[in-house]
Amino acid sequence: MNRHNSRPIVLCLSGHDPIGGAGLQADIEAIAAQQCHAAPAVTALTIQDTANVSDFRVLDHDWIIAQARAILNDVPVAAIKLGMLGSGSMVRTACEVIHMASSAPVVCDPVLRAEGGGALGEDDVGYILREELLPLAFIATPNLPEARIMAELPDGTADQCAAVLLKYCKNLLITGGHGPESQLHNRLYMQDGSFHDIVQQRLPGKYHGSGCTLASALAGRLALGEALPGAVQSALDYTWRTLRDAEAPGKGQYIPRRFPIA
Ligand code: PLP
Q: Whose CA is closest to atom 2 on ligand 1?
C-alpha cells in the first residue's frame, strides 16, 4: 500500500438514484473513469426509475456536515462536485462544506428536474443556488432549461442567461441538446470574458444521468490539474462517448455507459 500513489479525490455532494443512472452512482463511475477517486456524501434519497422521479427526501444538515467532516479530516480533497441538493437549506449546507474545504475548485451542476420532468428540488432551489452558491463555485454546468430558471429568463437564449449568471459565478458552461437542433451547441463562458464553443453530434434518445456524468468528469479533470477549457473539452468528449455507448435496461431513458465496453 502506498499513500503516495493515491488518485486525486473528488468530494461529491449529490442525491442517490436507486436505478443507478444518475446521482452519486453516476458521479462515482465518471470520476473513476478519469482516474480519480470519488468520496460520495449523500444529500438526498430519491424514488425513481429510468422514466421519472416520484419522490425525494433531503437529509439533515448535521448528517451532511458530519459526512463532509469525516472526508475532509482524513483525505486531501482536490475538487468538489455538487449535484442534487434538493432544498434551499441544503444549498446553504453545501456552502458550509465549501468553506470547510478551503480552496478546492467547485463544479456546480444545478440539478432541478429529472429528464422525465419530475422535480428534484423545492421551488426556491434555483434562486438560492444563484444568490448563495454560484459565487463560491469555480464553474457551473447548467443545461439551457436550468440556466433559464436560475437567470429567471423563461425564454432566454444561452447568451442572455449567461449575461445574468456571470454576475454570480466565475465560469459557466451552458450545455445544449434540450431543443430540436440537430447538433449540440455547448458554450463555455470564461471569467476573462472569452467564450469557447464546443459543438457535438446529437445522438438519438433521452439519457438519464448525462448532466451528472459531465459535471463529475469535469470535476475529475480539474482534480487532475487540467485547466479550463481543456478540462471542459475532455469532459464533454467523455460524456458524449458514454451516451453513444448507452444501455437501455428499463422502460424509460437510456443510461450512459461510463466505463468503456471491454
Ligand atoms: N441527481 C439525482 C439524484 C437524480 O436522480 C437525477 C436525475 O434523475 C439527477 C441528479 C440529474 O440527472 P441528469 O444528469 O440526467 O440531469
A: 23
